[in-house]
Amino acid sequence: MDAPAAIRIEAADYACRHEQLHALRRAVFVDEQRVPMELETDELDPLSHHVIALDAAGQVVGTGRLTPQRRIGRMAVAAGWRNRDVGAALLQALVAEAGRRGWDEVSLHAQLGARNFYVRNGFLPEGTEFEEAGIVHQTMRRRLDGPMHVQDPAQGTAAATAVAHRARRRLLLHCRGGDAPLLGQPPVLQALRRFASARHDKQALVLLHDGDLQALPAALLALMQRLPSVFVLRGPADPADAAATSAAILNDTGDCYFRPMGERPDGELSLDSPARALAHETRFQRMWERAHDCPGLRALGI
User: Fold this and answer.
1) Any keyword Coiled coil (predicted)?
2) Per-residue pLDDT averaged across 64-88, rounded?
3) CB of 253 within 8 A of CB of 241?
C-alpha cells in the first residue's frame, strides 16, 4: 500500500535524526506503555536502518527500525495518527528495505495488541507468547524469497486473514467442509467484511465444495445475504473437481494461501507472487466454469 496522502515516509539517518526518533519513542513506549527508560534505547540503534513518517509540517509522527539481526522493531506511531495506515506504510518501507538487501526473511516481536496488524501485513505467528519489557509479545516472521509454510491453525488463520485483507477488487475462495472454523475466526471475518464493504467495485467468487453451506460460518453467510452483489457461490459439478482435495484463498494482488489437503490448515502462503498465484487461479477458474449454483442459495437470498 502507498503512504497516506497526509504523510511521507523517509529513511532517517540516525546520527542526524536520533533526537526526533527518541522523542516519539519515549512518548509511546515510556510515557504510554510504561516501558523502563533504559530499555527504550540500545546498542543496535546506531547500526539499524530507521524510517520515519512525517506530517505536512515535517513533524515525525511515526518511526520503526530494521536491525542487523533482520528484525523489525521500535514501531511507534503518535497517538493522533493511529488507525490511519501510518504503521502499515512504515512496515511496508521496512519490508521493502529488507528485500533490497537480499534478505530471505524478517522477524519481529509483536505486542499482543498489535498481532493482528502484523498478520494483516503477511507475518505469521510462531512459538509461544513471552514477556518482554513487562509486556506480552509474540514472535512473528515473514519470508521474502518464496512461500511460507503454514503449519497449524493459528498460522492458517493468519494466512487467510492476510490474503483477504490485501485483496483489492477480487477474491477467490475454494472452500471445503472443514473451513467453518477457519473462515469464522474474527480476524478473517473482519478482513472479509472490509473487502466486501469497500466502496469500489469488487467481487468474491466462492467455490463451495459439495455445495455444503455448513462449510461456511453463520456470520459469513449473513454477510453474503446482506451483500449478494459481492458474493457469487457455486459448487463443483464435474466428478473430478468434486474429488479434488485441495482448498485455496487467492486475491488480485498476487497472494495465495493454498492447502493441498483442504480439511487441514497445513499449506503454504505466497505473498506478492503473481506467477505462483496465477497457476492456482487458472485451476480455480477451470473448476468455476464447470461448476453450478449451490443448492439452497435461493432460500438464503444469495
Assistant:
1) no
2) 95
3) no
